[in-house]
């Protein structure tokens, strides 16, 4: 009986620490994600604006690149932003095969995802 209680307590601690770690990662990229969403809405000139909960977000290489994936007019849009360290801002990065090939190593390292997968 004591063993079962110990295992349950250990399980609860592991689950809680996993949730806390996920929140810390989310906070780490919060400002960058918000900046990129504002830039994308300006680019779209969309009056309604993209809502974060409707956008798939992938952060690559500790924030060097952020990709937004969303549906617009029944078409899936993939928009990529690169962090410019000289200017300390994100800029839209061309989403074409020749440009993506140049940064393939950076895109191999996923640091954070949000709203990606089956819904």
TrEMBL record:
<protein>
    <recommendedName>
        <fullName>DUF4467 domain-containing protein</fullName>
    </recommendedName>
</protein>
